[in-house]
Amino acid sequence: MGRLLAACAVIGLVLGGVQFVALRLAGGRVGRGGGRLISLVETTNLPGAASLHVVRIAERYYVVGRNAAALGTLCEISAESVERWLAAPTSASPNPLAPVVRFVSRFGRQT
Questions:
Q1: Average pLDDT along the chain
Q2: Tens of pLDDT along 9-39?
């Protein structure tokens, strides 16, 4: 039993070391919002396993909709509006997706 625990501990340390090295080599740009070219800015979940996302690609921002069957670009939004929202204090900043959420939610209620 002691040898098994020691082997698991060694494997855990090796995996942790590999992850640490990989993150250092990637400069911390791994996962959500960490990329230099593409990043996820905001996500709003909707009823029925659907969601809206604001995605930054280079200097442009897009609203992307997702449901169980599809993923698609709904519209492009101005960089100024997104950057103004990001710069505002979190308690005072309204959700920039609120009008889109209200619009899409109307369709969800009709089913």
A1: 76
A2: 788 787 777 776 666 665 554 454 456 788 8
58's tokens: 């280079």
DSSP classification of residue 95:
P
Q: How many domains does the chain have?
A: 2
Tell me if 51 sits within 8 A of 45, measured CB to CB.
yes
Contact 52, 65 (CB under 8 A): yes
Could you tell me if 94 and 40 lie in one domain? Answer: yes
65 token code pair: 């909709």
pLDDT of residue 110: 47
β-partners of residue 62 are: 55, 76
Q: Which residue has tokens 């800015």?
A: 41
Listed residue (53, 51, 33, 56) closest to 42, CA to CA: 53
Domain co-membership, 14 together with 65: no
Whether this prediction's pTM lies above 0.85 is answered by: no
Q: Which domain holds residue 14?
A: 1-30
Tell whether 48 and 98 lie within a shared domain. yes
